[in-house]
Amino acid sequence: MKWYDKISNKDDVVISSRVRLARNLEGFAFPARMDEDSSKKAALSVKQALENAYGTELEFAQLGNNANLLVEEHVVSPEFADNTNIYRALVSNKDKSLAIMINEEDHVRIQALFPGFDLDAAYECANKADDALIKGCSIAFDEKYGFLTSCPTNLGTGMRASVMLHLPALSAYGYIKSIVSLMNKIGLTVRGIYGEGSDARANMYQLSNQVTLGISEEDTIEKLKSAVLQIVDRERNLRKKLLEDTKSETYDKLWRSYGTLKYARRIDTNEASKLISNVRLAQVCGIIPEIKDKNLIKLLFEIMPSHIVSCFPDALDSSLRDKYRADLVRQFLQ
User: Are 96 and 68 in contact (CB under 8 A)?
Assistant: First the structure.
C-alpha cells in the first residue's frame, strides 16, 4: 500500500501533509563536495543509527532505476533522483509515508508524508526519525544558526512543512496570483505539484514555510495550519459560487471531462491531469454519482509517465504511453 491509497474523498481540498527535515553529519563535506567513498561512509553511519532505533521496520535500498517512479509519488525529490555522482540510498517504511533520503542536497533528508490535513502526525513521525538520527550520529549544529545545511535558506530548524492543495475554484476565478502574493508576505510560499520550478498540474499546489531561522518547529506548523484553513475556506466558498453562478456551463464542463476520460482511446499526461482535476471537483461536489468512491488522486499519480512504463514496459514512446494511459483510466472508471 502507498500513502496515496489512503486518501479519503472527505479530504476535498487538502490532499496531503508533509514535514521534511534537513540534517548533516559532522566530519563530512556536504554532498556537493563528496566523493563515492565518503558518501558510502556517511550512508553507513545513517543506516546504523536508524537500524538501532527501528530494527527491521525500515527498508534500506540504494536508489536505482525506480528513481523517477518515486519522484512521481512524492517519495523522493527530483534533485535526489538526478544526483548520480555519489552514492545515494533511501530508507523507508513499507508505504513510504516515512522516507529518508541519504546524500541529497544534505546528508539526510527526513520526510514524513501523510494523506489529508495531518501536519501534526507528519511532524511527529519525522521528529521520531530525527531523534534516532541524533542519538546515533554526530549532527552538524551551531548554537547561533541551528542545524547547519548545504543551502543557507534551510539554516535553523532545517524544516520544511507543506501541504498539497487541490484548488480548482481559486484557479477558475484567477485568484492564485493573489494567494501567492499574500502567502509570500507572511513567510510562506506556493509552488507546483512537484515543488520548486514545477507547474501546477491538475490545479494542485504546495504551500510551505519559507523561514527556518528564528522560529520554532511548532510555531512553523501552527502558522502553516492557520494559512491552510483560510485557503480551504475560500476554496470551498468559491466552489459553491462557481456552481451557483455558472451552473449550466460548469456541469457541462465536468460531465464532458468525465466522458472524455471514460471513453478516450489516447490521452497524454497533461490532458488527463486537467480532466481528472475537473472530475474530482465534480466528485467532491456530489455531481457525478458514478465516481463517488473512486480515489481520483491515486489515479492522478498512476497516469504519470514512469508509472505507465512500470505497468507497460514496452511503452517507450509517448504515443504508446498515451494509449496505455487511456486504457488504464477507462478500466479505473468502470
Answer: no
Please tell me the distance from the alpha carbon of residue 171 to that of residue 131, in angstroms, as a whole number: 40
Select from 300, 121, 105, 307 the least CA-distant residue to 193: 300
Task: Give the Cα separation of 75 and 156 in Å (integer).
Answer: 24
Give the C-alpha separation, 316 to 319, whole Å: 9
- Amino acid at the residue 264: A
- All cell numbers assigned to 187: 513567510
Q: Look at the pTM and tell me if it is higher than 0.85.
A: yes
Q: How far apart are CA 60 and CA 145, in angstroms?
A: 31
- Residues 264-283 have pLDDT tens digits of 999 999 999 999 999 999 99
- What residue type is assigned to position 234 of the chain? R
Sign for the pseudo-dihedral over CA of 25, 29, 31, 32:
positive
Look up residue 182 and give its three cell numbers.
499574500
